Amino acid sequence: MPCLSAQSTRLLDILSEELDRNYKALQGKGDPAPYYLAYAVSEVDAAAVTASQGALLSSSARRSRTIDVTIRVGNPKVDNYHSVRGEMAQFTAGVPLALDDSPDAIKRTLWRETDRCYRLAAERLITIKTSKEVKVAEKEQSDDFSDAPPLTARETPGAQDFERKDWEKRARKLSEALAGRPSILSSSVSAMGGREVKYFVASNGARLMHGRPTSRVMLSAQAKSDDGMDVATFDSFDANNAKNLPKEGKLKDAVEKLGKDVEALRVAQVVEPYVGPAILSGRAAGVFFHEIFGHRIEGHRLKDESDGQTFAKSIGARVLPDFLSVIFDPTLKQSAGEDLNGWYQYDDEGVAARRVPVVEGGVLKTFLMSRTPIPNIPVSNGHGRRQPGNEVVARQSNLLVEASKTVSEKELREMLIAELKKQNKQYGYYFQEITGGFTNTSRRGIQAFKVIPLVVYRIHVDGREELVRGADIVGTPLASFAKIIAAGDKLEVFNGYCGAESGSVPVSAISPALLVSELEIQKKESSRERPPLLPAPAGSSTLSASPNDGGVN
Amino acid sequence: MRRRSLILAGLAAAAAVVSAQKPEDDAILLAMREEMARAKTLRLQGVNDQLYYIEYGLDSLHSFDATASLGALIRVDENRARVPRVQVRVGSPEFDNSNYVYTDLFGAARAGGGVPLDDDLTVLRRYFWLATDRVFKGSVEAIARKRAALRNLTQQEKLNDFAAAKPTQLYQSTVKPEIKAEEWKKLARDLSSVMTAFPRVTGSSVDFEAGYGTSYFVNSEGSEYRYPDNLFYVRARASAQADNGMAVRDAAMVVARSLDKLPPESELRKAVEQMGRNVTALLDAPVGDDYSGPMLFEGIAAPQLFAHLLASNMGLTRQPVNEPGRNFPVPQSELEGRKGSRVLPEWMDVTDDPVREEWNGQQLQGTFPVDMDGVVPQPLKVVNAGTLENFLLTRLPVRGFEGSNGRARLPGNFGAKAAVFSNLFVTAKQTVPAADLKKKLIEMIGQRGKPFGILVRKLDFPASGSIDELQRQGMAAGQRGGSSRPAALPVLIYHVYPDGREELIRGVRFRGLNARSLRDIISAGAGEQALHYAGNGSPLPMMGQGGHVALHSVVAPAVLFEDLELEKRQEDWPKLPVVPPPALTSSVK
Question: Are A374 and A380 in contact (CB under 8 A)?
């Protein structure tokens, strides 16, 4: 991937020129006139490959530039972004922008998009004003836009050394390890490497260029138990520059483990409904915190009158045990020796990233904020984020769970056993690997606040361990946070992509293992579809369906 | 991931053949054959409806796409994909799991893992193994539900579900894809920069698209095929906003199934320049009004008109078995049930010819060797001396017809394929010299005391606007009592005055224009014009849309209509932008 050339800063000039021209003209002739205009460009250069069982499934490369326009009419107290009855405004469309730094093509697109967004903004402001006059004054009266100092900076994003042809070979080779395994229905090895450069100019004088490289390897395997339940395992590795991804040997070991785990899962015992103590591994705890806790402290959810607002009015209240703190820190580049996905220098509203302690000693201090104020919190704390094509809302970055007192892994285990005895239970659970409704993929939808266990062990009072399948965490997981009784002493990193209201953004969660005194699980809804009727084609080993099922005559 | 994959029915010209892989060595065919042999043994115990037909299809694609505007590249995409199709039929040809509103839902192969790009026999076979398993189980469920649904419905007409066909084998060598990325990027940039000479045209773009494909097919009756299926496509679009806010637009388009048949760059440049001139002229053209009277279609407008009015009406569909209480109306051909009726003047014929390769020195684009059912097509006279004699048929039995004539060129619904034409020849046994048509038009308006007649030289077909625009157009047309079937808009449309003077107008649409209108043709011109385009089976295809497309050619003479209608477009036009457009820094002489 080529390094950033000096020519790319030309784009900032073109953006500024066209922004100034449009802003001046609209202020002069526009009715309503805008009070703020910003152009945000995301330039992506990325490649990805996927292989399965020794064969390449896909290989692609893409270069794109996308423009998002933010225009605000009215005034910071009431503008076109004002939320009406829970409906969030959408103006920008993430339109493709010329890849060449050609003023003609770029300015034309900017001009057209500015006009389109302006007309939508003007229309919506009228709707808001009439609705405001008619309706009874709303409960909360925070402004629609907060002030932020205009920043100028030009940072050169790090290099990306992702050789697609090379990774095609490597993915093929790695995926071959899972070929010919009788119980594995499908599996894949994917690798991707990219670099994003962000450009931001605004009518208040902000001019920013920054960005970062990202790369990832994803491994997955699926199998089907004889009772029809689908089981799957998943693993991933992230690094800024692909040359820092784990070496061949480590990846090979990970693939082997994946295969072994899914084969074991396929024939593992099914869980029974259960309420009782459980240990979450550091990675699992991180996902848990991100899904169950993290989404609830994204500021915009409190502005929305239709939201649950679990933590509304809780500033100063105890939300976690007093030995735990939660910090969001997008300025952190690494933790526990790993590159962090949630690192950035400036958020998507041009606000500088900063460390935000959200919970200190168990007490809620603040929320994650974009430039959209909420009651009692009038300013941004650099967490306004979006995927191109979406409007900005407050989103998570790097979530850090800090424990002021910790115990060793061994002790944590012993404490679990002690708790089991105390509660008169025969066994508890250890969640080694879980995935979030939002955290592993960029799918939006109803999966918020949902965690999906992947690799779970039953821990018996006598210390015996067995793998189980089909566990689903139910009840009110949030209540479990009050029941965290101990933390381990080793931090683990979970890197992922979170897809919520403003699209997919890279995030991470860093946490020690946690012991929870009460977690509720039950058997998840599963497919009843039987395994394949015919054995796998020759060349792979054969695993036929049960002989009573039909199949080959 | 949003990926546009072009799947086509076409035939590459005999270009340099790099790999003449024998069918017995082809990994894809081998994999399909081997899994087909095993799949034939699939049975579910305790179930009456067992499988009687299996079909595997695969399109192996390598495509390249470059879009540019005003000399700058906007998008570049190169993609390799292998797109599979698996169909299983259970029951019998008289009654199976197809033609039911949930056929596609249950029959869809949502297999874990895609088809490999490598010719790895084991992994290829695994794909078909798992996909067939899922589709088979889904088909058994679908037929059971179909039976249950029928218990509460009276069927108007009992048709069989699948028609018989003779097995065929056809193998052609494939061409190795040659992606000339730098050359094509430069072509897109250079062609798009032509538009800098037209500063009033505020929106323009040029797309270059190259799609190399190989189509594979194996079914359980012994049919097999493999043939190359390529597409090269240059699209230019331009638009501007007139003083009253109305969008004016034009487009230029060239398709070819072989790269060496694409016109040279100089010709493409001329087409883009003409497009720029057209849009600029439309900006200054007066707005037209409602009209009822004689109308002349000449130049490219003639084959465009026939494509628009006939194309989607030449295949027949049928209603699927619905769930009781749920109505799922399937749009039917306007010509359905009219076999033996007059649809054109007695001196006109229409033939669909999928075999012919060339016309008047131009490559025909609709030529193809075998359809998606594995049936080899022959030329077919659709309209004979003005009378409708034949429809385009697939293996789907429809009212009045059972038995394919090899026109299944696109995927259809509810387990069937869609029949679309290939190379359509509209011929007139009686013609007059081209100039006389205009004279006749003037004569007719004189007789009726009309101040002017209407001459159409170009339609927006395929449509070059956005999806939003098309939807708005459709709604606006429906409001004034027109059909909600999308109608092509005129691009170059003129008043013709008694002294012969022509005046370009804008802002009008056709009213009540449909297949029946063709009966009102009173005269045809001596020359013929050819239109080549990519369509998706709909009455108004959109330019450059993704998904499955088929290439077509239409050859037709200029035609004069006795009486057609226009209406003034009454849409809410957006206001002109408050901010004037940015000045261009470059301009091309």
Answer: no
Q: State how far residue B514 is from chain A, nearest Cα, in angstroms.
A: 35
Residue B123 forms contact with A (CB below 8 Å): yes
For B525-547, the pLDDT digits (tens) are: 999 999 999 998 888 899 987 77
pLDDT in tens, B217-273: 999 999 999 999 999 999 999 999 999 999 999 999 999 999 999 999 999 999 999
The CA–CA distances, whole Å, from B224 to A179, B218, B276, B373 equal 29, 4, 47, 10
Which residues does residue A515 pair with via DSSP β-bridges, in sequence order? A279, A486
Question: What confidence score (pLDDT) does residue A84 get?
Answer: 78
Q: In chain A, how long is the greatest CA-to-CA distance?
A: 82
pLDDT value for B548: 87
Contact A187, A221 (CB under 8 A): yes
* pLDDT at residue B57 is higher than 50: yes
* Helices A9-29 and A103-134: angle between axes, nearest 10 degrees: 40
CA dihedral A289, A290, A292, A293 (to 10 degrees): 70
Q: Is B324 within 8 Å of B501 (Cβ atoms)?
A: no
What are the structural domains, with CATH classification, of chain B? 2-284 (3.30.2290.10), 291-316+331-568 (no CATH)
Q: Give the residue from A395, A11, A443, A390 showing the smallest Cα distance to A197.
A: A11
pLDDT at B173: 87
Confidence at A499, pLDDT banded by 50, 70, 90: confident
Whether residue B313 contacts residue B352, with contact meaning beta carbons closer than 8 Å, is answered with no
Cβ pair B112:A114 closer than 8 A: no
Chain A contact for B27, CB < 8 A?
A: no
Closest by CA to B549, choosing from B338, B206, B179, B233, is B233
Res B317 pLDDT > 50:
yes
Residues with Cβ within 8 Å of B28's Cβ and at least 6 positions away in sequence, in order, are: B58, B60, B119, B124, B216, B226
Q: Which of residues 39-98 of B touch A (CB under 8 A)?
A: 39, 41-45, 67-81
Average pLDDT value over all residues in chain B: 91
What is the distance between the alpha carbons of residues B250 and B264, in angstroms, rounded to a whole number?
A: 21
In the predicted model, what is the mean pLDDT of residues A2-15? 70
In this prediction the ipTM stands at: 0.90
Are A190 and A217 spatial neighbours (Cβ–Cβ below 8 Å)? yes
Model confidence over A350-374: pLDDT tens digits? Answer: 999 999 999 999 999 999 999 999 8
- How far apart CA B282 and CA B489 sit, in angstroms, is 14
Q: Which residue from B34, B574, B582 is facing A111, i.e. has the nearest CB?
A: B582
pTM: 0.91
Is the CB of residue B218 less than 8 Å from the CB of residue B33? yes
Q: What are phi and psi of A97, to 5 degrees?
A: -120, 150
- A62-95 burial: b if 16+ Cβ within 10 Å, else e: bbbbbbbbbbbbbeeeebbbbbeeeeebebbbbb
pLDDT, tens digit, for every residue of B149-169?
A: 998 888 777 899 999 999 999
Interface mutation vs chain A, best among B69, B196, B200, most A CBs within 10 Å: B69
**Residue numbers in B near A29 (CB within 8 A):** 578-579
- Which pLDDT score is estimated for A539? 67
B544: left (phi over 0), alpha (psi -120 to 50) or beta: left
Chain A residue whose CA is closest to B189: A100
Residues with Cβ within 8 Å of A181's Cβ and at least 6 positions away in sequence, in order, are: A259, A263, A540, A541
Instruction: Please compute, for residue A477, the number of CA atoms within 13 A of its CA located in the half-sphere on the CB side.
Output: 23
- CB contact B574 to A (< 8 Å): yes
- Radius of gyration (C-alpha) of chain B in whole angstroms: 25
Instruction: From residue A43, give the alpha-carbon distance in Å to each of A105, A197, B1, B2, B110.
Output: 16, 5, 17, 18, 33
Per-residue model confidence (pLDDT) at position B459: 97
